[in-house]
Amino acid sequence: MSIVQIKLHCVFDKKAKLMQDNGTIQSTISVIRTDRRRLVLVTLCMGVLIAQIDTSVVNLAVRPIGIYFSASVAELQWVVVSYNLAYAVFLLTGGLLADLLGRKTIFMVGVAIFTSASLLCAFAPSIQFLIGGRAFAGLGAALLMPASLSIIRVVWPNHTERGWVLGVWAACNGLALAIGPTLGGLLIGQFGWRSIFLVVVPLGLVALASAVPTIAESSDPDGRHFDAPGQILGAIALGGLAFAAIEAREAIFTAIIALTVSLLALAGFITAEAKKGAAALVPLDMFRIREFRGAMTATAGMTFGMYGVLFLLPLTWQSTGMLNPAGAGVALMPMALVFVLVSPFSGAFSRNFRVHFMTSSGVALIGFGLLVLSAAAGQGSIMADEIGLILTGLGMGLATGPLAGLAVGSVSVVRSGTAAALFNVARMAGAVIGVAVLGAVFAAGHDPATGLRFSMLLGGLVQLTCAAVAWVITRANATAG
């Protein structure tokens, strides 16, 4: 072998070694990034769980709290209401602050507030202090929930990967529904009502500690600023809507006033935001995006029926003597379990069957579930009810993740915090309107079975209508794509 050949072999060997080392380095970096993103998802899921578990167990503790503090019915109602109102009022603020100040920062602030509020509730010396603590927790949830969804949009820019992640994120909601009542009942029975607030504290602390090294900071101020008129009008509109729904069953005149104020504030909000253009709290041009409008419609329809079921079906079971509270909690489990099991696969289903098909068909399945519940009302057996609940859980599992992905994925990353907040606004609005409207129909029935029959019939028809509207809105773009 000549000297030239020897030199060429050395050069090629070094180049091959360099390429091999570079490939190894790139592979290692890819593994590190994948592992880090999994830790990000775990952290975000813990944040979602602390908010949802706390919400699902508080209703179980209302009676022991009332006995302990000798509280009135109105005071006990505000233990639940204060959280919902604060959550509604500050949702838009949470989404905007995530975009302006940093999504990681606002997520961590939200988790810290929620965890601190849980401690305050656990050691509340009076019912008034407990109500204030619950409102403080609502503020924390309004910050962490939109921020968590916005972080997913940033960390997983590829919509295929994001579909699976959002399925897992959505499954945490179902997991909270599944374990919340059971866990809450056990804790209250063994350790008293204060324990339900303490149980989320370790999860909150772990989420905070995990967020520091795993989540990268991101923000997109993009010339935007804190929109005070928009914040005030938006808060009044959302708070008024929630308050009207809460008061509808007990004080109809007060509810009408609150609803009127909410509608006036909404009109003022739209006018003010239209003048600000791209600098608005909620840029109205987001609603020109067909996919975004479809996601908002389907999301509101989904929670309209879902929360109506969660409110009215256990009430009917207990009113007719079919089940006691513990039995009602167990009977709701199939819906939650199907939700948890199906959600992680919703991303893969969306790739195979198109997102617009998954979201619309998921909401339609919930509608069919409600129609089954309507037909089964008064039969004296819960077997048909379980079929309706399984259909409802299946629809929720198929639709929730893809709807979240459609909402935040149809806008730019710059607006991801706002889109995430609006997704949660649609969920909240659908829920409070659904409980109010279907509850009113239920109350108008001569007996619980009749009330359930007509309320579930109306709920199912609304679900199917929203599914059809979402299909029409999103199908054109999906076909074009």
UniProtKB/TrEMBL annotation:
Where can this protein be found? Membrane
**Pfam families, sorted:** MFS_1 (PF07690)
**UniProt-recorded name of the protein:** Sugar (And other) transporter family protein
CDD domains linked: MFS_MMR_MDR_like
InterPro entries in the record, alphabetically? MFS, MFS_dom, MFS_trans_sf, Sugar_transporter_CS
Organism the protein comes from = Candidatus Gallionella acididurans
Q: Which domain of life is it from?
A: Bacteria
Q: What is its main location?
A: membrane
In the record, what lineage is assigned to the organism producing the protein?
Answer: Bacteria, Pseudomonadati, Pseudomonadota, Betaproteobacteria, Nitrosomonadales
Can you quote a single GO CC term? membrane
User: Could you cite one Gene Ontology molecular function of this protein?
Assistant: transmembrane transporter activity
